[in-house]
Design a protein that fits this description.
Strand order of the largest sheet: 1-10-17-16-15-11-12-13-18
CATH architecture of the largest domain: 2-Layer Sandwich
Keywords: Cell membrane, Membrane, Repeat, Transferase, Transmembrane, Transmembrane helix
Strand content: 15-25%
Largest sheet: 9 strands, mixed
Helix content: 40-55%
Protein name: Cardiolipin synthase
Number of helices: 21
Shape: globular
Structural class: alpha/beta
Number of strands: 18
EC number: 2.7.8.-
GO molecular function: cardiolipin synthase activity
Number of domains: 3
Distance between the termini: 27 Å
CATH superfamily of the largest domain: Endonuclease Chain A
Subcellular location: Cell membrane
Radius of gyration: 24 Å
Length: 500
Amino acid sequence: MKRKRLEFFFVIVMLILCYLVLFTGLPFKWKGLSIGLYGLIIISTVQALWLENRPPQNTLLWTYILVLFPVGGYIFYVYSGQLLVKGELFKSKRMSDRELFESISKKQRALDVSQLNDHQRSFADYLNRVTLTDQNQNTMTTVLNNGTETFEEIKRRLMAAKDFIHLEYYIFRSDRLGQELIDILMAKVREGVEIRLMVDAVGSYSFLSAVTKKMVAAGIQVYPFLPLKTAWYNQKFNFRNHRKIIIIDGKVGFVGGLNVGIEYLGEDDEFGFWCDTHVVLEGEAVQTLHAVFLLDWKYVCGETLFDDERYMKEYPIHDNGLVHVVATGPETRDNMSDHYYAMFTCATKSIWIATPYFIPNQAIQTALRVAARKGIQVRLMVPDTNDGFLTQYATQSYFPELLRAGIEIYSYQKGFLHKKVVIVDGDLASVGTANVDMRSFHLNFEVNLFLTATDSIADLVKHFEEDLRECRRITPVEFYKRKMTVKGKESFARLFSGIL
């Protein structure tokens, strides 16, 4: 807290010093003193940066930004998430998360892994060692393909709720789809069902200002995650909650890539067809997914619910395989990049990736290139047209080294590809909210399901193969003939990879 206040204080001081130097008629000695004080702040910041022992290239980059871009460089440094050192900004949340997950772990039944093959067992053992959550058996997962199937199932399950409904979304719009869900929630609260809704303050900005008063008046509890009015002061503006979670009566859970808005039904002319994946959970893993929501809820409003047995009760359902709910973010020691890397290094036959944004770190790049050179089939599916200039061209900037390694790259043509799916050897899979990019790895709060030997993996494989038919494969010869202007855009966009 002291450091956050100090950095915020420095921002104000630097703005005042620049104003005194540039826009006042103060004597030269006072302007010189102002410049000296500004320099002292920059030098102390650079010194602190060096002592963190980050990768040399990152340290040099941020040193250049701090020195060469007056005030703006410092503000960018503070609010882009660079002050997140060893989770200090979210230390209290991390400690609370650990306490709850450890209490859940004590109730965990012994797992039967006798049916797993070597690489499945290796990956399961890795997740057990490094994550706070546990693997779950007695859990059924059902894959929902695209928006229509997903929201029909969500509405059906919501209408059947008897006790409580908990929802957590990055984007929740008040358009036709959003209003349909709101109407269901309003009807259920009149029936006596408890409803709690948590939305990201940036992703759902228009929703928060438009309809929340009506919902709160009806008895629905609505809270924003990291409200903008305090985010500048506490330096958490750039950290967003990208999770999409629904828990119904503790028996059913939803998680995946779909937010709430008509574009996710393919009804937005700008995006066209929306290709995405969601999953329905039933059984023991619902409790773990619910714990992720309950901890986020406690963080935003202070209400502690996990001491109430009805919110943490298990409803086992017999099914095969392992299901592991893994939440990552700036409050966790590990990140989704580590888990993807572990999956890739377990591969013996194939690695299939579908993601809207492919902006990998060096470890991910190396793992994929090495896998391809070992003869493992590596397929990457990305949208033909992205929803942003930087993400579009930053993703393309990584294609040359991937193509040289023999990695197959597919450009989705039918509409916008938004699913976040990784499949290894056809018997390990990840599906959830995390993209293969730096924001999902370091800045966003994310949640994924890691599936080991479940029947639902076959559905993910089937849908991936169906989506491949809507793709155009990018060949090395074709890609290398792109215009110099395109290459320039790619190089420029790649400079911002660390915050995309």
